[in-house]
Hints:
2 copies of one chain form a homodimer.
Chain A: H1 2-14, H2 18-39, E1 42-46, H3 47-50, E2 60-67, H4 73-90, E3 94-99, E4 103-109, E5 112-120, H5 130-144, H6 147-162, H7 177-187, H8 190-197, E6 204-206, H9 218-223, E7 229-233, E8 236-240, H10 247-262, H11 278-286, E9 290-297, H12 303-323, E10 328-335, E11 339-346, E12 353-360, H13 365-374, E13 378-381, E14 384-390, H14 396-403, H15 408-413, H16 418-424, E15 428-430, H17 437-446
Parallel strand pairs in A: 2-5, 6-7
Antiparallel strand pairs in A: 1-2, 3-4, 4-5, 7-8, 9-11, 9-15, 10-11, 12-14, 13-14
Amino acid sequence: MEWERVREKIIEQVYPEQKELRDARSVYEKISAFIEGEYGLETHFAGSTGRGTCMSGDKDIDLFVLFPRDTERKTIEQQGLTVGKKAFENFDGEYQVEYAEHPYTKGQINGHEVEIVPCYKVSPENIKSAVDRTPHHSKWASENLNQRQKKDAVILKKFLDSGGLYGSSLKVQAFSGYLCEILIAHFGGFKELAEEAENWRENEVIDPENHHGGGLPQALKEKFSDESFVVIDPVDPERNVASVMSAQNYSRVIHRFWQFNRDPSMKFFQEEEREISQFEVKQEIDRRADFLVMEFERPEAVEDVIYPQMRKTLRRLENVLEEKQFRIFETGFHVGEEKTRILLELEASLPEVRKQKGPKVFHGVEHLEQFTEKYENTFIEDERIWAKIDRDYTEAKAFLNDFLSGEVEELEKKGIPDHVAKKIVEFRFTEAVPDDEEWLKYLAEKLKVKENE
Amino acid sequence: MEWERVREKIIEQVYPEQKELRDARSVYEKISAFIEGEYGLETHFAGSTGRGTCMSGDKDIDLFVLFPRDTERKTIEQQGLTVGKKAFENFDGEYQVEYAEHPYTKGQINGHEVEIVPCYKVSPENIKSAVDRTPHHSKWASENLNQRQKKDAVILKKFLDSGGLYGSSLKVQAFSGYLCEILIAHFGGFKELAEEAENWRENEVIDPENHHGGGLPQALKEKFSDESFVVIDPVDPERNVASVMSAQNYSRVIHRFWQFNRDPSMKFFQEEEREISQFEVKQEIDRRADFLVMEFERPEAVEDVIYPQMRKTLRRLENVLEEKQFRIFETGFHVGEEKTRILLELEASLPEVRKQKGPKVFHGVEHLEQFTEKYENTFIEDERIWAKIDRDYTEAKAFLNDFLSGEVEELEKKGIPDHVAKKIVEFRFTEAVPDDEEWLKYLAEKLKVKENE
């Protein structure tokens, strides 16, 4: 009852009006008619706009051109491009060529963002690449969602998006639109899903088409062993639709559903706008350990490359700092439009003296010999020999300066991925709270700064 | 050859002259004759003086009075004391009464420190308490050591003593005199022992009388499972003569033998006298983390009680400090004549903010509920819920002041043993390097300060 009212309000705000959906379909149909007429090729209206599971204002039209199975790859690439170009030209659309599995065209027609993507018309078992699977996903979702469920799918997308959990890019690592639709179809609706989801466990398996009646076969268990959440693709029994989702995001989703169930209100469908001042962030920083902020140019690559590389870079820096015994409290990074920054909250200074652990004494004299040849001031503590030595680095700053100096190739050898290496090699330390709105928001979120009341 | 010369030199310095041993024996024989004559009781000349394995200057005479097996406990206690008192009176000796298994007398006769100890004359299998075993130990050692080996036993004692490893009290936790003698008898001599000992492993078992031909029975393996070094008592197959030895001291002994083997010289038989100035210790402290030194009165108990209690106290303080996330680099304690001090080298300050770990999100909503009821500013990181909270204590000093305040009984409940609790309750923080020679030596040793060259 209460939820129904909230639901209506959300739909009002985020679900497209019928006219909007009709407009999009009419544009699709015109292009489709042109392609069928000119080239005798079937098309498919993929994407959420095609099946009425998009948010209002979403003007994307994904048009897939289906080539017969025996078309040669070269032909599909050439003709795929030609078809796209001619279609854009025919409708006076501006376009450009993009590259995925095959090259394709992308541009504007009548105010819609249109993609014309060539793929093979094959059954799911015979797909040659991921792009051939898309029409099947699209078809499955259309056939398995009624009107109310389509709206619930959009509600779910909004619910996730407000929590930073909508998207299956390597930046976001959370829910794809297709995954949202599968879950709504499987559980029946948003509310039903929410009630189930708070109880999801580690390695939860959802198999909507019941491909694996008696539980996953061993081979799939192994394949999915690193994935916290497994949703078997209705059109491909060996694929986990949720494979890109990180364990952290899976946990966040469960947590968010649990919060929602305790208070099913509008707030879960609105962006949380924190208004945190520079002063408040500075106050927060004073209450914490030392801060080091490293700043460098944004790496030149797409987000699906930058984000995994930045995560790897951060892990690497954490590891080498911890090897040097610097105590780390918090880390993070932010890729802004221009600047990329790495945040390290840590004990930035260590005593000059440290103890170097040696072998256990009763593990044999050869180890004692090696150790005492290497170190001078040795002694026994517990069951080991130790050496008292001077630390290489007492300051984390000095260590990072040295670790990240040298040629880009050296950095790569030290475990910094290439695109990041090219930029981080010229990093500089900067004040923790510079005058940068985006970064300030990031810090406030990262450091859990609460708005002053 | 070289070693033989060194050996002769050590013997010259530490082995008693024949006259010294003869004098002691003659005193023993006079007392023994008196006791046999007056009471018809057999005696035994126990202790290292009795068997010529003492160091020169050692004036101890341990005289055991052997009572028949069927003597009642009450009788042995009364008559044991009477015999002792009369003997001291007869030889014009001053004495006092001490308490071990039975009360006994202890005093001076002709410049010798004499103990007259009553025990049962029983075979090793029938002993009623540890004191009855001593004459058997003594007898075994006498029968199994030739003249040269007796000297080697003394060399071994000196070797260990110079490294702080001679003594089986709960303070020292290392080698008893009897253990030294067993090892010399078993390996044949000091040099032979040294060569073997550097290769001793964890859970080494030495069984000189080969009581357990096929290896230790399971029950004994379990009994000795916490003991790094097992030497089966020649007169009691179920007893480990080395049971009091700590793993650290076992490691130190192996290490010391290994050092000796590489350079068999006099330096291992001399006390190492460090001449470290207050200034040098202060310099060392500047190169390290924060120092807290807690000072209180020496606990009122014997060393065998104080030392285990101090070790337990230190472990307890380490544990509670680490629970509070203070990072500890070094700890120690020193029981001086008057003052007892605890040393803590640590990061004495922590940031105000900390993260409180909560349950994994997918372990069930009931855990989420409990956690969020308790904490306000919660968030998800990795697979867990966490809370951002203020630390109870940012200063280790303030924490220790609170932890050790209150009544003695409260301290005992917090895990501080009674005798220490009575004194530590009035502790105060003191400067790390006060004007105290003994403490300075302790610090120099603990912090491995090298003498300036």
